[in-house]
Amino acid sequence: MARFPEAEARLLRGKFVCRHCKSVIRGPNMKIIGGEVKCRKCGGHDFKPKRKK
Ligand SMILES: [Zn+2]
After folding, report:
1. For residue 28, which phi and psi values (nearest 5 degrees)?
2. Facing residues of 10 across strands?
3. How far is the CA of 6 from the centre of ligand 1 (A)?
4. In the chain, what are the domain boundaries?
5. Ligand 1 centroid to 33 CA: how many Å?
6. Residue 47 — very low, low, confident or very high, per pLDDT cuts 50/70/90?
7. Is the pTM for the entire model greater than 0.90?
8. Contact status, residue 39 vs residue 17, Cβ threshold 8 Å
9. CA of 16 to the centre of ligand 1 (A)
């Protein structure tokens, strides 16, 4: 199966996982990095990009 970097990037972009409670947050990349987005569960600012293994 062919892999499409663009499609993968689209799927992953804007999806982040809270490091504290593992909830998935969606938001613009820059806002997440800039700390403008808070986890709605625990209020944390620590996110990692959502990725497949
Ligand atoms: Zn959280």
Report:
1. -60, 140
2. none
3. 28
4. 5-49
5. 15
6. very high
7. no
8. no
9. 10
